[in-house]
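> @MW can you paste both from yesterday?
MW: sure, first one:
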Amino acid sequence: MSVSKARSETRTFQPFTPDLGSFEIRLENLIDDLEELQQPNKQAEFLDNRADQATEEGDPFFKTIKQAKKSLKEAEKAQREFLATQSNEAFEEYERLFKKGIDRAKKSLKEAEDELKKATKREGEKKREEIAKKAADVENQRALALPYAKWTLAVSLLADVTMAGGQVVVSEGVLYLGWPDWNNPDDKDDAKESLQRALGRLRDELLDEKKRDVPKEVRAVLRRMKTNKDVCTILRDADIRLYACATENKEYDGKSSKVPTYPEHSAGVTYKDIYNACIRSWSMPNRDREGRNRRYVLAATHTAFKGGPIPVGILEVGDGAPVSPQRDELMGFDNRSFGAWLVGEADDISTERLAVCVREGKRTDESKRRAQVVQERLRHIRYALLDLPDGRSSTEPLKKYSPEDIKYFEDEAAGRSRDSAKGSKGLDVWKKKRFGYLARCLQGEQALDQWRKGLQLRKTNPFYSVTRVLRDLMLPRLNLELTICGAIPPFSAALGGKLVIAHSAASEIRKLCNQPPGYIAQRVFDSNKLAKLFPDTGAVVHTTKGLFAKHSAQYERALVPGVERAIKMRKIGTTEGSTASLLSRRTYDFSQILLESSDTRGVSGIFGSGGSKRYRRITQAVRELGVGTGFVTPKIERPVYATVFVNNLKDVCLQNAEPEWNIDPALDLDEYPLQATKLWRTKWSAAAEKRVKMVRKSVSEFMEKLAGTSPKQDN
């Protein structure tokens, strides 16, 4: 197939020309093989098999380099321990001789120190030679492993893209690769089917890794419904509510502790086991996430069904992405949205008009008051910083800090301290963060102070520092992401996902945001001072993303109970599709191996050193491979949805105003589930029953697939 023909089918192809060194001949042979395979599904299967072969072939080299690096680390550790031991011995010798008399001690100590230096020099040289030898061994093993790592990553990347519905074509001896056009209405169904197939494959891959077998007792809990009538009975009459899963969750001090949970299921199994069984039916891989998370099972209790609550759906809530343009604009945490709020304009004001309002006028008394309030928030945040490494103060009046001071703080925070004349060398990530927050607070205070006084601001993003500080610190106290949300079969066919959403705004969930300063903040700020600046409202907005491009049937028109009327979940935009979620664990593993085999500096694994580590590592490895990073991101423009629980969202987020609730924050654990279920039944139960009756598969088939085995195996 020619490239021009491929482009006419709305795909965008890019040349796939990795830098493989001595393995270039392998790529040429691969191209010859692919030219004979015209059908995309055969290409995908062929590439997947070749990636597995490359993995097996390179495995001995990858193991050897790991062993060499481990040996080098052990040698370096031995050297550090030796020097520490010598230092302790010298101190003990000094103490012993000191007791014999100062004059004699001085002479004997001098002799002992001379001998110690000679011994240390002899042993130190031996250890340095040993370390140099081991380091050379690591470099040799890297050189051997590097071409295998590049080759395996290249083939694995080709396999992942084609398995997701992408395509490879050859033109004039050059290999071209392209993702599907997810947004083309003519190919919408094919693209959706390809995406479902790819996500199912990655889901099964993770399940195989975790080896989560469904316990016999859990299978019994899942199998109690037999007919469509049973499903309708549950949805129409049962008592439905959320049950929290017992989980080991990292608290902010970095230690693991038990999270308070509901009692176990009456069948003698945990809701965690039930959740893990239900996740097997999910449409996409369930990868572990950084930050807070809490999991729930939505279950129904009915007198006609013995054995305790029947699982209906699952829900996971947690921290969203550090940066989400759609969410940040909604909450006032981006430059444009903040500027519109500051001058009292609507969010849809034109960029040109907003720039004029911000730079040249629109300074009403209310606008000035808002600027003053936010400026004071930044000042108090600055005052809460822990001590700076060089003795600088963060509590001086704003006018005391010169532009040179702020530039110095920025340099220290950005890791350029070795180039700074007065810089502190070797700062850890927490101390750099202190400098970073200090610089941004000062920049934000200055911008707001200048704006109130009618002075000229910089033309681009004048309030960037303001929104960055407030977003980083306040977002986790105001927003939760519904990271997993939906019903399990057969309830998924009966609008059960909207039922899970109706229960997602319970006060116990929204209060998860009411947390003390976290692991990172504790190392940057005085926790007691900072805690007083945090809002105590709980989540005022929930956000989530659809799975497929542009639209999500589950989230459209979904409702949660409100004070005067139901609150509608609404679409607030679409993502850019910058995610590596369609790439396999194999590709991720060999991305790490490639980074270890090359001289490229890897992505830090330290908590607090930045999010999206998986995406960043794969992107960096693909860049090292010598191909475009566009092959990492499928560019699926997924819809972003939000449920807002207050009428004055930006006031709450930006100036910590008292919330004007459109949801009843006082509803207890007993009342809210009743209202949520009633709302869903009023809106959706009739349509749900019709859908259940149209389902061709039997309920028993759904339940057996979910349980993962047949009843005969449990007998």
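MW: second:
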Amino acid sequence: MLTPMDFLPIVHRELSVRARAPAAYALRLGSASGLVFVWTLLVTIPHSVSPALLGHSTFVAMAVLVLSSCLASGVFLTADCLSLEKREGTLGLLFLTRLRSYDVVIGKLAATSIESIFALLALFPVLGLPLMMGGVTGAEFLRIFVLLISTLIFSLGIGLFVSSLVDNARQALGRTLMTIVAFSVVGPLMSWIYSFLWPATQAFDFVLWTSPGFACVKAFGWGGESDFWRSLAVILLLGIAGVVGACINLQHSVRVGDVLPAPIQSDQAKSRNIVTLFGGDNPYQELVVRQPSLVRVWTRVFAVIAACWIISLLLVGGGRTSPLLTCVLLLYGLHQLLKILMSIEATRRFIEDTESGALELVILTDLGVKAIVCGHYTAVRTALSKPAVHLSVLNIVFLLVIGVFGAGIRLPGDLRAFVSCVLLGGILLLVLDLRALLWCGMWKALATKRQQRAVGATLLLVMIFPWFCIFLCFTGILFQAASLTSIVTMVSLWFAASAAIDLLVAAHAKRQITEHFRELVALSYTATKRTLLQVH
């Protein structure tokens, strides 16, 4: 008879350790408290609607917020779990025992997902508060409950699958993000464009089933219930397929011997060749430039999304608002995507050099702290300057279309002026956000030993306020004012506060890096080596 130690021993060990970890309790308390704060904010703002409608709209807003968190779980939890083992060389040691590939994959899934599952379970009682307010049926709550669990499995499964294919943290995070975006956004977008151009046919409706957002819409009863269950089944199957694919890829890596710490050896070899780079203006900048960035990923995604954006822009006119709204959403999505890629790129080099020990060697050379920091900053800023120009061009084109063809779009003159100012402000905020993300990412890369944690901390410090304002716009709280003047005032304050946060965070991060660089490197290096000793 199999004992728990014989069947999935890594799962048994990880569940025993993680279930009682202080971080698990803190995450559950923090998640539930945060959602309670959001619910309190939504219900205490004066509304001119019935309690039933308020309860339903509050439930929709909270469900969308939790769904977004579930989609992001794969990027921050499982995207780098297997690739990290490859870089540290511990994956080969695991397979010297009687462990199989599914033991390792399911064990890693349990280790990375247990805290997120606990947090999700802690959120369900809070999601039940709108149920007592009225306007929400038990069937809707049950559908959302099942959808959130399936979306979490979907995101974690994709992260595991991508992590089994690569051995680099930056590639793991970027590819996981792009895969989740492709399933969640690109398919429904293509289906919408096709149905708009040829409304009589429904040949591509099946691509909607891969999107958790589509399933969320159907879960609220907006459309056929059968579409919800089809979409739910597809999402769950994709997550399970990701876990199975990770097992197969890991088993193949073992057979071909691709579980040795070759990446670490390669990074150390590169660090030994630093002396050969001293002919340039900044050797560390050349080191950062030598490795490929996520600009290639951006170019491919931008080509697809920009094509859809141009098609939607051509469909604007005749009083139709859906193409105009699609243009706004696509442009906003591209802005946020570039900011996420900036946070990944800003944290990559310092994290990799800390893991390989190269950063310690660089400090011992004749390079000063200023040269290292300026070299990294200049290399990343130069690499992502072209994507920023691409987005600025789209903003200007959209601005010209609204200004020249505003009458055909049937937008009032005051509203056209307001949208034009928002587009110009978006360009300014894009520059300030990217600068703040770059400095903050470099700081968090030195203060944090894992890239996904550094990326998450960077995004929270810089983007939490504007994202929360967007969430309030989604719920309609910011637009409770009756006049356009009040809306303009609130949006202006929003932009000013976001710009102030960018400047303050960038200044603080820059000061921390320039004044405490060696201390941060020593702390991160010690923490990384302590983690390696615990793993071994």
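> thanks! Residues 264-536 form one domain.
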